[in-house]
Write a structure and sequence with these properties.
Strand content: 15-25%
Number of helices: 4
CATH superfamily of the largest domain: Ribonuclease Inhibitor
Strand order of the largest sheet: 2-4-6-7-9-11-13
CATH architecture of the largest domain: Alpha-Beta Horseshoe
Distance between the termini: 87 Å
CATH class of the largest domain: Alpha Beta
Largest sheet: 7 strands, parallel
Order of helices and strands: EEEEEEEEEEEEEEEHHHEEEH
Number of domains: 2
Shape: elongated
Radius of gyration: 33 Å
Helix content: 10-25%
CATH topology of the largest domain: Leucine-rich repeat, LRR (right-handed beta-alpha superhelix)
Length: 343
């Protein structure tokens, strides 16, 4: 059914939904049609093509996204004020989706990755915010992607490099930043696809500044320090503090008894796992002093009455064994009358 270019007025009548076998519906370029897309459109299970573009429609009920077998949907150039919901991921068969030139707000839902047959996606000239979801990289059939003239920000996902059939992309007039991907289809795109953004960088042919390599290296070094070196240093400091605290408390309670206990302890004494388990009540949480990135410290009471701090390393972590070696070396070299010797 096609009733386009007829200067129709008013709203779309719900009686259309009585045509159960309707497969294609074109109500386009009737600038006077306004209001809501009838809710019953979600029941037109035989519908394969729906073109309602170039009208003054203001609302679409989410039931429309339940048409799992529809192939083409064009609602562009209207006055739609909706937010894209996760239900849009139900359009499993759709190959063409054009929602451009509306007032659609909110973010692009990750559920859009469910449209595995989608070839053309146009969300341009709306009020979309947020980042471009990484999940767009799973739309393996995509050939055309237009997200221009929105308020999108953040990085361009590297996942888009895997869209081998992508021939056209337009991300201009947003607030994107960071490096423009250079692999896959991005080798063929021009500067027009990325102009008028916040702070993009990359290849000179795209008419953007080169990305700062020094900044990137510095960033990587900071990340390594925060993730690897800093946790080890914090663990060492915590262990030393706990030992110092325990020794100081025992001296207050028992005077010189600690010195006698320490002097009576063999310097090369071997303590079994069973004895440590008994001393900490099976490493019970009630004896937990501190928990770090690479292990935990428990308070233990040996059979001879000596209070010890037991460090349990998590060797399943990649840096667990390295942390163990570094901490042992550091504590072995410590010398102070208020610090307990390493057993």
């Amino acid at each position: 059914m096609s009733i386009g270019n007829n200067r129709l007025q008013g709203t779309i009548i719900s009686e259309i939904c009585k045509i159960k076998q309707l497969s294609e519906l074109y109500i386009t370029e009737n600038k006077l049609i306004s209001g809501e897309v009838p809710t019953c459109f979600g029941n037109l299970t035989s519908l394969r093509k729906l073109y309602l573009n170039s009208n003054k429609l203001s609302k679409v009920n989410s039931s429309l996204w339940s048409l799992r077998d529809i192939l083409e949907v064009n609602l562009s150039d209207n006055a739609l004020t909706l937010c894209l919901s996760i239900e849009i991921g139900n359009l499993k068969a759709v190959t063409f989706l054009d929602l451009s030139k509306n007032m659609i707000s909110g973010s692009i839902p990750g559920a859009i990755s469910g449209l595995q047959n989608l070839q053309i996606l146009n969300l341009s000239q709306n009020k979309l915010v947020g980042g471009i979801p990484d999940s767009l990289g799973s739309l393996i059939s995509l050939t055309d992607l237009d997200l221009s003239q929105n308020n999108l920000f953040g990085l361009i996902p590297r996942s888009l490099e895997s869209l081998h059939y992508l021939e056209f992309i337009n991300l201009s007039h947003n607030s994107l930043e960071g490096e423009i991907p250079s692999g896959g289809p991005f080798k063929n795109f021009t500067a027009q696809s990325f102009m008028f953004n916040k702070a993009l960088c990359g290849n000179a042919r795209l008419q953007v500044p080169a990305c700062s390599k020094v900044k990137k290296k510095g960033s990587n070094a900071n990340i390594f320090f925060i993730k690897c070196i800093l946790p080890i240093m914090v663990s060492i400091i915590l262990v030393v503090f706990c030992v110092f605290f325990l020794v100081k408390r025992r001296r207050k309670n028992g005077g010189d008894t600690n010195e006698g206990t320490l002097s009576a302890l063999p310097t090369a004494r071997m303590i079994s796992y069973y004895e440590l388990s008994q001393a900490t009540n099976g490493f019970d949480e009630s004896n937990l002093l501190v928990r770090g990135n690479f292990g935990s410290v428990f308070k233990g009471l040996l059979s001879n009455g000596m209070v010890v701090a037991v460090k349990v390393f998590n060797l399943d972590l990649e840096l667990g064994s390295k942390s163990f070696s570094v901490e042992c070396k550091a504590m072995r070299n410590l010398r102070h009358r208020n610090l307990m010797k390493i057993i």
